[in-house]
Amino acid sequence: MELKEQIQPHAVLIPVPFQGHINPFTHLAMKLASRGFTITFVNTESTHERIAKAHSHKDDDNPFSHAEESGLDIRYARISDGFPLSFDRRANASQFMIGLTHVFQAHVDDFIENLVLSKPNPPVSCIIADSFHVWGSMIAKKYNLINVSFWTEPATALTVFYNADLLKRNGHFGRHDKYDDTISYIPGIQAIKPEDLPSYCQDADPNDIKYVFKCIEDAQKADIVIGNTVQELESSTISALQEQQPFYAIGPLCPTNFTKKTISTNLLPTTDYTNWLNNRQDGTVLYISFGSLVNLSKQDILEIAQGILISKVSFIWVLRHNILVSGERNILPLGFEEETADRGLVVPWCSQLAVLSHPAVGGFLTHCGWNSILESILCKVPMVCFPVIGDQLTNRKLVVDDWRIGVNLCTRGLIRREVVAENIGKIMNRSDESRKNIDKTKMLLQNALSDEGSSDKNLNQFIQDMKNKILQKN
């Protein structure tokens, strides 16, 4: 047996402490552990407390305890993010992000140092840090570890960031007024409009731009970049990335072992919303959710709600206690819930996968978070797209323009209730083109994950390359 086959890598996984990043990191941990890795998974104390409360866990519970029962070597750790547990991270987002850049880095450094000095068996050999951390390369170099950057968004967004200098030279960086231009000079991207660039390349807050591009600069220093995407979904873009550094598409990193018919009995315990869905005809319910970090204005909520009234569609709407731009709490129009009581359900939280997988659900009104898009594809649910920030704008382009598995909620952020109703109607029409296309897109994802599929091959190649690099360091 070759020496590299005898190596058991020990990887420390550190996601950004937001649920949309933690979810794919969790599935990555399980995948790597099932391939013989030892995993040390690092969560922040505040994230652990929030997840534990949501799942009624005790404070000392290990969310990977079920993995241990399966013989997987996943070790769970919690460290401070530099703020007290009582600190409102959402309401003080800018301060929190600054802390992640500086204070959290020091806590990670201390943790890695103590872990390395403790001489675990097997020894720590690599760090897999979220690409939205700015310190992965520094810590990896300090402790002589393989530096892997995990990109949790589509490869298209990463390619845009990698080519920001091209945007600047051509006058498209930070210019939100050039909507009618077509950008065709980014390697691997045939054509993209300025309005479809990630918001950080448009007119976002300068502090946000500075932080994001520090992250990108650090990702470019990584030994390997892995992405939560599929080769066949973004083939030309991924090929362009691979010319710059090793990049492996190993997605989708989300649950895949379910079907429409097993959800209400096998995946999760019966809940009020699954009971409600069980009493609806197949394909008739619109699921509405804008994620946990998206802020909507009161006017946005009003127009969407009125559009739903006009469409007369059945729906389940997740309305979290989001803070609005105006500082108010999300509120629906007076009488909305009473008027839709026979066909609608408003909930503060639900299991998105449970809802999307339910046979009653026929459409998804979404903010276009990347995890939401992948889950929607796997569940064969076409989308009504309402992106707000970050990569969501680019994700919308992929869904609507490239893959044709969804429609826009509105044009350029201007929400009108009549247009909302019209586009909801397009998706809920079961003969819509997007419904046929999403069947094909799901097959791409399933084939990629199958034995000898592209994601399976890429994961194996990533593991072999990492073992080679570990040998070289030793």
UniProtKB/TrEMBL annotation:
Keywords: Glycosyltransferase, Transferase
Taxonomy, superkingdom: Eukaryota
Pfam families (alphabetical): Glyco_transf_N, UDPGT
MF-aspect GO terms: UDP-glucosyltransferase activity
InterPro entries noted in UniProt: Glyco_transf_N, UDP_glucos_trans, UDP_glycos_trans_CS
Protein EC: 2.4.1.-
Enzyme class: transferase
UniProt KW Glycosyltransferase keyword: yes
Ranges of residues in domain Glycosyltransferase N-terminal: 12-255
Family statement drawn from the similarity comment of this UniProt entry: Belongs to the UDP-glycosyltransferase family.
Name by which UniProt lists this protein: Glycosyltransferase
Organism: Solanum lycopersicum
Lineage summary: Eukaryota, Viridiplantae, Streptophyta, Embryophyta, Tracheophyta
